[in-house]
């Protein structure tokens, strides 16, 4: 596995610690298991959908939490105490935790579960103050007092 030395960034750029933490979070995310499988879909200009295969889990077994720019999805089931005998067991019902690093101004709009798929809708909502605006030549700056 390759590692990236970001120490030159710390010496050269002020505020690069945020960039370094994003890169570190991305490399940690790569080390996660592939369970459960998921898709990230672009459904509009600033709209996204995460679809996660959670076969065997109910709405009560899955929790979704957003904290700052991190989306965490956890699935937890109590172990069944039945004497089932499987000839083949391909549907995994093990507990999981999957984290996604969200970009700035990305908000979680809704979550829904249908046919063993968990759908989470997200949207990037850029505040008016951050949107580009046209400045007319010869205009004066008006300050809020």
Automatic annotation (TrEMBL):
InterPro entries named among the record's database cross-references: A-crystallin/Hsp20_dom, ACD_IbpA/B, HSP20-like_chaperone
Stored PROSITE patterns: SHSP
Recorded family membership: Belongs to the small heat shock protein (HSP20) family.
This protein's UniProt keywords: Stress response
Domain spans labelled SHSP: 29-140
Protein name: Hsp20 family protein
Lineage: Bacteria, Pseudomonadati, Pseudomonadota, Gammaproteobacteria, Alteromonadales
Keyword Magnesium carried by entry: no
């Amino acid at each position: 596995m390759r590692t990236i030395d970001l120490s030159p960034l710390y010496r050269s750029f002020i505020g690069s610690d945020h960039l370094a933490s994003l890169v570190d979070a991305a490399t940690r995310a790569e080390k996660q298991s592939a369970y459960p499988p998921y898709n990230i879909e672009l459904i509009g200009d600033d709209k996204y959908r995460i679809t996660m295969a959670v076969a065997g889990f109910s709405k009560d077994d899955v929790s979704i939490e957003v904290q700052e720019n991190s989306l965490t999805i956890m699935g937890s089931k109590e172990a069944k105490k039945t004497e089932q005998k499987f000839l083949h067991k391909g549907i995994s019902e093990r507990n999981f935790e999957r984290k996604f690093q969200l970009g700035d101004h990305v908000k979680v709009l809704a979550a829904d579960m249908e046919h063993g798929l968990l759908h989470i809708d997200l949207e990037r909502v850029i505040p008016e103050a951050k949107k580009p605006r046209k400045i007319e030549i010869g205009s004066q700056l008006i300050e809020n007092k």
